[in-house]
Amino acid sequence: PPSTSPPTTMDQILAAEQDKWLADAKAAVKQQAFYMKKAIDEDNLRDVFKYSSAMLGELRTSLLSPQKYYELYMRAFDELRGLEMFFEEQRGKGHTASELYELVQHAGNVLPRLYLLVTVGSVFIRSHESSIKSLLKDLVEMCGGIQHPVRGLFLRTYLTQTSREGLNLIECKVDEESSTGDAVEFVLQNFTEMNKLWVRMKHQGPVRERGKREKERKELRDLVGKNLVILSSMEDVGVEMYGEIVLPRILEQVVNCKDELAQNYLMDCIIQVFPDEFHIKTMETFVEGCGNLHQDTNVAQILCGLIKRLSNFMENEPETSSGLFEEHQTFERLLDPATKISEKVGSQAAASIYAAILDFAVKTSEGKALGRVDQVLSKCAEALKTADVTSQASRTLKSILTTPLDSYAITDLLDLKSYPDVMQLLSPQMQNAVAVDIIEKILKKGTIIPNVKKVASLFDFISTIVEDIKSEEDEDDVDEEEIEEEQNLVARLVHQMKSEDESIDESFAILKLAKERFEKGGPLRVKHTLPTVVFDVLQLVKRDDDEERCEKMLKFLHSVIEVISEVPEPEKAFKLYLECILVADMKKLENSAYDFATAAFDIYENGIPDQKAQVEALKMLIGCLSSCSNFGEDNFDALSSAATKWSIKLLKKSDQCVSVFSCAHLFNIADEGNSEKVMVCLKRALTAAKQAQGMAKSSRGELGPVELFIAILNKYLFFFDKQEGEALIKAEDVQNLLDLVSNETSSLTTSGAEGNDRALKFYHNTLRHIMSQKEKFPEKYSALSLKS
User: Can you tell me the distance from the alpha carbon of 416 to that of 396, in angstroms, rounded to the nearest whole number?
Assistant: First the structure.
């Protein structure tokens, strides 16, 4: 029957072959190790060399992948430890280390010979029969006989492991002929050769397998990096030797290898394994080396790694690090060369570099922080002004702009001249997001923007949401809801723009600037922002005792509201004029109040076409005028007459009625001339109510608007209460109207109809008021009789 197992892939076949080859090689190592141990037990030096050489010969294979080769190497390494002990014992049996060193060099194959040579070499070093530096130099040079990348790397790894004791002896000054410099030279030479072998792996085999080889190289990178760990652990390698010898030699090899994988890894190794103080004092050398790396190397990541390391040093040891940073001018020595590098890389890489430097400046610069932040922003804007800023770079730039918001007061940040320049690098949407962040920070902290200069800077920072930026986008794409949300934030921001010492002149200058900048926002914006300017200026007028300055501010408000009315937002402008009337009247500035009133009437006549809106507007206007108390007779007469005239012109009789009897409140009942006007208004209202009742009956066959009669009755009662005697409204007039209302309400039923219930409730409340007044003022109200 056909097989149901899944088809075998080529990778599975190769993996199976690798496992078979490794198993065969391990078996051979095990077999030869058995014979080697037997020879060791018999103290047969010749056979030990024979079988150990045969065992190590298995490491000559080219069939295994680096990962499998590592397993084979570790199997052989375990056996070599026993062999090293045997060679150590031979020194006590009449053989010198130098004799053994000579004997192993007669092994047939190069690779086994060199492994044996390194093994005996470790014994030779401990014997003190020769200078350590000469032995190490000989070993590192002899290992050059293996140029196969994988075999050479593991051979030198073995040399690195076995030479550690010799390096320790040098550091302990056991060998007077050897110095720390000799030990450093050995490690550097071995590092250089290992890196060359590691890079050479890239070019082995067909091009189509390069990806696979790069993966294998990554698995072996720690073998090369181990040398840098050894250098960093040498106590006698101080910052001077590091700066003059170690770092230049490492950088020379890293730069010359021109391999991005090696450069990325080794530069990161340098950052991680050597102390912070070393990096601070050799900053220029390291950053200059970064500028010479391969174009595909992630230089930005390397620099960011260094800067992050130094920032962490500042956080962990603030007292020690701050002194070092200032003494060695770390910021300056980092910024200038990093700027040169940023000009050679893409926008995202450059933005990442500046983001890291900015973070470093914020964390490490106390008194000079803002100046340094501005330097970073300036360099960033200059480097990227002609670059194609990607979306990822935009996100990084946004973080650059928002980072200082969490560390400094907004008022201090407003002195950063380059902040808007960096914002201009972002897309409009991203600029808006940053602007919103700034505003929200101000509102959350309750920060006051105290003078014109600071306010001007703030508007530069948030210009993208304040001004109407022309773009190629279709106007239909504008999101009005989003704009409204943003402008509401901006409007709230206006309340934070004021003098800290309550200077009216300074605050007024700020608000004039706000108006000037808001006007650039176009119709969609000014209708939300300018009203706040109006209200804040009105607050200044209320607390100002300088009449001339108050008139100046009120005149300014005229120009602000005109802009709003031209948006067009006539109803909003109308309401603002009413607010201005009340404040001007309160300050006894009659001319200003009259100007605002005439402007309000003009908007009512020409700017509010909707009937319902007209009714509401006229109601508010009448209420506003009735609250005023400082108009001259002529001006007030003109305004009240105009209000009455427009009330009579309302289309619906019911609206006419309500508006006209409201006008009655505009006239002083104590004045004989005005009292007649009160009566005229009330009679006109009653006529309008009767007309409204007739129209309602003829058109709908229903009862007339009874509530209008009840409302008129209440107006009659109001003025009846207020007047002295019966100079204007006689009890007979009130009684006639009371009888009319009683007749109209008698036919209403409590059937649950909303209109009937409301009218009856209104009527009963009115009757209760009359009864209460009869008890309080029996003489005045004795002529009024209530029907039960």
Answer: 19
Structure tokens at 229: 């760990």
Q: Mark 124-147 as b/e (b = at least 16 C-beta within 10 Å).
A: bbbbeebbbbebbeebbebbeebe
DSSP 497: B
DSSP designation for 478 = -
Partners of residue 554 on adjacent β-strands: none
Residue showing tokens 């993208």:
464
| pLDDT recorded at residue 718 | 84
User: CA-to-CA distance for 787 and 767, rounded, in angstroms?
Assistant: 10
Instruction: Identify the three-state secondary structure at position 778.
Output: helix
Neighbours of 777 (CB within 10 A): 11
- Identify the three-state secondary structure at position 55: helix
Burial of 480 (0-12, 13-18, 19+ CB in 10 A): exposed
What integer pLDDT is reported at residue 623 of this predicted model? 87
Residue 45, Cβ neighbours under 10 Å: how many? 17
DSSP label of 8 = P
Distance in angstroms (rounded) separating the CA atoms of residues 584 and 591: 9
Report d(CA 751, CA 395) in Å as an integer. 67
> Would you call 42 exposed, middle or buried from its count of C-beta atoms within 10 A (0-12, 13-18, 19+)?
exposed
DSSP string, 561-602: HHHHHTTT-HHHHHHHHHHHHHHHHHTT-HHHHHHHHHHHHH
Tokens describing residue 180: 């720390």
Q: Give the Cα separation of 122 and 145 in Å (integer).
A: 19
Q: Which residues pair with 449 in a beta bridge?
A: 497
Report the predicted TM-score, pTM, of the whole model to 2 decimal places.
Answer: 0.75
Token output for 526: 């000014």
In order of 95, 130, 169, 414, 620, the CA distances from 176 in angstroms are: 25, 11, 10, 64, 104
Contact call for residues 379 and 335 (beta carbons, < 8 A): yes
Query: How buried is 468 (Cβ within 10 angstroms: 0-12 exposed, 13-18 middle, 19+ buried)?
Result: middle
The 10s digit of each residue's pLDDT in 70-105 is 999 999 999 999 999 999 888 777 788 888 888 888
Residue among 200, 305, 304, 315 nearest 258 (CA): 200
Tell me the Cα Rg of the chain. Answer: 47
The total number of residues shown for the chain amounts to 788
- Rounded CA separation 518/523 (Å): 10
Tokens of 575: 């309401």
Helices 347-364, 369-384: crossing angle, 10 deg rounding:
170
Give the three-class secondary structure for 449: strand
Closest of 235, 330, 315 to residue 277, by C-alpha: 330
Handedness of CA 750, 755, 758, 759 (dihedral sign): negative
Long-range contacts of 154-157 (CB under 8 A, 24+ apart): 154/59, 154/69, 154/70, 154/73, 154/223, 155/111, 155/114, 155/115, 155/118, 156/190, 156/193, 156/194, 156/197, 156/223, 157/73, 157/194, 157/223, 157/226
Q: Which residues of the chain have pLDDT under 50?
A: 1-5, 7, 471-475, 670, 698-704
> Nearest-CA neighbor of 120 among 52, 206, 197, 68?
52
Nearest to 125 by CA among 157, 160, 97, 156: 97
Give the three-state DSSP class for 715.
helix
| Intra-chain end-to-end CA distance of the chain, in Å | 112
Q: What is the DSSP string of 71-98?
A: HHHHHHHHHHHHHHHHHHHHGGGT--HH
> CA 318 to CA 363: how far, in whole Å?
10
What tens digit of pLDDT does each residue of 136-167 get?
999 999 999 999 999 999 999 999 999 998 88
One-letter identity of residue 698: S
